[in-house]
Amino acid sequence: MPPPRKRRQNRLQSHRGPDLRGHLGARFAQVIPTLLLVTVLVFCLQQLMPGDPAVVLAGESADPQTVAQIRAELWLDRPLPVQYVHWLGRTLHGNLGYSWRNREEVTTLIAQKLPVTAQLGIMAFIIAVAIGVPTGVLAAVRPNSVWDYLANAVGLAGLSIPTFWLGIMLILFISVQLGWLPPSGYVPLTEDWVRSLATTIMPAFVLGNAIAAILMRHTRSAMLGALGQDFVRTARAKGLPERRVILRHALRNALIPVITLGALELGTLFSGAVLTEQVFSIPGFGKMVVDAVFNRDYPVIQGVVLVTAVLYVMLNLLADILYVLVNPRLRAA
Asked: Looking at the domain that runs over 112-331, which CATH code has it been given?
């Protein structure tokens, strides 16, 4: 029978979570095949689109010789596996092709438009966290109260109100009636940060409204579960102030699933930005892909979908890393 000290060490190790390096290593190992699958799906997306890309690029009145020449330049006359390998090789070197509409590099267009959507998404996420997390904590601390019912009503409204309708109503009320903010347009941060915030604060609120409602409901649920745990009762029995019990003990543990959800919801902001940027006429990522769809600009669509998918996979990996950082069991491994 091992000595008492050895038994205590064995019990401590048994209560520790999975190995930290092994956990992160497994997640990193899953990223590579996932990204490879994403490239396959994005490549197949172009094959599913109607029409011949060579005919679209050359024009319907072009002669067959010109169409055949374009097909050879685009490798469209090769078997699909050969086309995929060629496209993947160019993509890995940062070459996503050229826009069929304005003959600019797709990487250049993405580099111009992505910072606009990134600014809008980050602002929307900050607004969502600033509204959703405190509201969820307040609703959980005072269950079945007026604050709880009000928070749930606001959360339900945030999930139910369409993005485009809320954007139009805010433009009519805040911009047209009150004249507080510009109704549309965009000013870069490097040009004038005050006007940049003025042009993006309203669309950021519209975009972050639904995310705030989701974070509020999950924060409330996680806080209710944490407040009923033994460690919270122990902290209260020790005579700790209620604010410290809520913020340091309950909220710290309740935020573990909320942080994971928040990192994943950050990826959904890119898809939600399509409608928001259209309503507020913001020249960002979403508006570019809408214009590319109407113009049948396949390389731009392909590049946008690929970049968005890669960003979502990276955010998923970030969620796993954040989960490890805030989870004491994993950090103790």
From this structure: 1.10.3720.10
